[in-house]
Structure formats: C-alpha cells, structure tokens
Amino acid sequence: MKPDTRALAAKGLADVALRGASLRDVMERNARRLADPRDRALLMALLSEGARWWLRFDAAVDGLLEKPLRHKDPAVHALLVLGLVQLEILQLSDYAAVAATVEATRTLGRPQLAGLVNAILRRWQRERDSLLARLDAKPQTRHAHPAWLAAALQRDWPQQSDAVMAADNREPPLMLRVNRQRSGRQALIDQLQGAGYAASAHPWLSDALVLPHSTDVTRMPGFEDGFFAVQDGAAQVAADLADLRDGLRVLDACAAPGGKACHLLERADIDLTALEFDAARAERIRQNLMRLRLNAKVVIGDAGAPKGWWKGQPFDRILIDAPCSATGVLRRRPDVRLHRRESDIAAMHAQQRRILAALWPLLAPGGRLVYITCSVLRAENEAIVAELLAAQPDAQAIAFTLPAGQAAGVGWQILPGDGDLDGMYYAVIEKRAL
C-alpha cells in the first residue's frame, strides 16, 4: 500500500518539533519510503515549511482547539499545523489542504478525529483574517522565531531585525562551489544549462554558482565527477580571507563536514589538516575529499586540547569555524529555531573562548587566523574576538570589507538575506612577531 505523504510528514514533524529529532534525519528516513519523486518533493516541502513555520501555526492550532492535542495526539497536532502550512505557505488547493489532510487523519489511525480536523481547518478559512492579525501581533508568531531569539535580534540589530527574520522565512537559492581543480566555472555553467538547470555565476564570489531552487544535486551532471560541491556563498568567503599560497601549512579546526577545507584545497597546493572532534562527522570530511579528488590529513581530536593531536609544528593559517548557535542559517536549517535554547549560548561562549585560546599558540608568527561563525549574535562573534585581542599582545585584527554585510565592532557580519546569503561572521587576526 502506498504510504500517505501527509501522514508521514505529520509523524516526522512531530518528531522534529516535539521530540527534538533532526529535520535532515527525518527527511532522509521518510523519503526512502516514497517511490514517486513528486511525493518525495511534497514530503520535503511539508517537513521543511512545517519546521520553519511551526512557532506560528502551532500557536494558531492551540487557539482553535478547546483541548490541546499536542501531548495526547502529537501526530494529529502536527497534521493540523501542516494543514495551515498547506493553506497559507504552500498555497495548495482547498481540496489538497483540507480533504487530503482529513484523510491523513484516518491513515494515522485516528478516524475519530477526522471530523475535528475538518472543522478546525474550515474554521481557519472562515476566520482567517482575524486569526492572522492575532498571530501578527507578536514577533514570535509573526516571524515564527522563538521569543528569546526575536528579542536578541532586536537588541543586537535593532534596525535590521525584522528583515533578518523575514529572510529566515524565505526559500534560499541553491548555491554551488565549482571545484577549480576539476572544472572551470563557465564550463560547469554550460554543462548544467545544457542539462536544463538555470545556473548562473555569482556576481562577486569567483567560485560560486547560483540556481533559483533546491534540487537533487546528486542527479546533476558533474556531481559524481567531483566538479562541484553545495556551499552557500557566505561560507565561500573563507577561502578569500585565508590569503592562501602554495606550500602553506593550514589547520581547519572544527572542520566537518569539510566544505571549507575542500575549498582551501581547491584554491592552493597546501598541507592541510582537517580536525574534527566527532568521528562520525570526520567520516563525512573523508567522503567529501574523496568525491572531490582532494587530499588532506583528517585528524580526530579536540580543538580546545591540542596536546592530544598536535605534533609541535606551527601552522601558517588556522581556520576556526567555531561551534555556535547557528542563528545565521535558519533559512537552510529551520529546525534550529525549534531546538536552540537561550540557555545554550553561555556554553557556546565558553567553547569558543576555549578553542581560540588553545589554538592561538599554534599559529606561526606572521600567520593568519580566520575566526568564523554562522551566528548573528554579537556575543558569539565580535565579543569573543575582542577578548582574544585584549589577552594576546601579538594579535592584530586585519580590517577588510565585503560586497555584502556590514562592519562589526571587530570583523565583518553578513546578516541572513544580505546579498541573498546566509548569516555568517568573519574576523581575520594576524600574529605579529614581537
């Protein structure tokens, strides 16, 4: 019997929103159960937009129900959220959004709730304007962001906070990075366009290609040959800031899944060590290196405790893509807004400080350290770098500008949507010879 896509999505979304499951894992697990690519595409859209808009429509469902279903019937609660997502975000026909959702209630084994699901969705249609106005009255439900994050954005970026949250809720373009060791950018564009993909060159990132919508990249020409990798343009800035040349010894700390490490290797003939704490994530680095036909030393170890893995020879370049709140990539990872807690940030700060302090002595005099986060919170970014600069007399910040984003107190901040990029922070620090 063919699985019901909406029922699968409802159970998966309940796992993500109510049980803390990874959206990526839920997508991969459930997509394998659907043979028809159209069903898989609908599943991905329901799960992605369901996670993105959960904090808006979860509250709406609560307001429409006399008795909450969240704990008693989590999948039916999630199905109601998806019904509203289909009507308001995916803008499916009434039949698809209501009748098919009601039918999915039966597939979930809750036929006695089919009438309730139908009544709730029909009531939403009748009272839509007043219900939307109620949701729009608060930043949390207007933008589907947790209250603590909406407040943090308003504090750190008072002029841009609404634009940031709006950008988090738009589908990002698909961005690729050409592997210049295997192909030229224009040659890859021609190859993709010839296969029907609307690929174009990014206006200022020399290795970046842009496609308007996500697709299954594994089916694209050149993927198996290692001609390209998927990587947002903001992340591609790292290779420019590293100021590479052949022969340098480079450390990419916190390297998984290996996108930035591979980009560095594509740019220059360097001796690169890719360090990763988690063995399973380190395997993803090896897989990416293999597909792209690149070579690096992959080391499993703690970036904050170099004694366990460092051999004593300084590095000319150190890249620290520090563990962070991931608040800059909510448009690509919508489940982060459901899983991240305000209480997590202090632990992130401690980890960032520990890693920076531990790795600074490993940098050779005259060398360059690039500190990166995919956070938009100043406390994880310029505040951490400012502490290092104050503590280390041989540390000097290097000023730079980018075509997107804005100068931070130290370094540069790209906010989500700036140049249609993900949110990313960069600081470049040089070690002076004293």
From TrEMBL:
The reaction(s) this protein catalyses: cytidine(967) in 16S rRNA + S-adenosyl-L-methionine = 5-methylcytidine(967) in 16S rRNA + S-adenosyl-L-homocysteine + H(+)
E.C. number: 2.1.1.176
One GO location term (cellular component): cytosol
Main subcellular location: cytoplasm
Occurrences of domain SAM-dependent MTase RsmB/NOP-type (ranges): 164-432
Residues annotated as the enzyme's active site: C374
Location of the protein in the cell: Cytoplasm
Domain of life: Bacteria
GO BP: any one term: rRNA base methylation
Single GO MF annotation: RNA binding
List of residues binding S-adenosyl-L-methionine: C254, A255, A256, P257, G258, G259, K260, E276, D302, D321
InterPro entries to which the protein is assigned, alphabetical: MeTrfase_RsmB-F_NOP2_cat, MeTrfase_RsmB-F_NOP2_dom, NusB-like_sf, NusB_RsmB_TIM44, RCMT, rRNA_ssu_MeTfrase_B, RsmB-like_ferredoxin, RsmB/NOL1/NOP2-like_CS
UniProt-listed PANTHER family: NOL1_NOP2_SUN FAMILY PROTEIN _ ANTITERMINATION NUSB DOMAIN-CONTAINING PROTEIN, NOP2 YEAST -RELATED NOL1/NOP2/FMU SUN DOMAIN-CONTAINING
Family: Belongs to the class I-like SAM-binding methyltransferase superfamily. RsmB/NOP family.
UniProt-recorded name of the protein: 16S rRNA (cytosine(967)-C(5))-methyltransferase
Organism name: Rhodanobacter fulvus Jip2
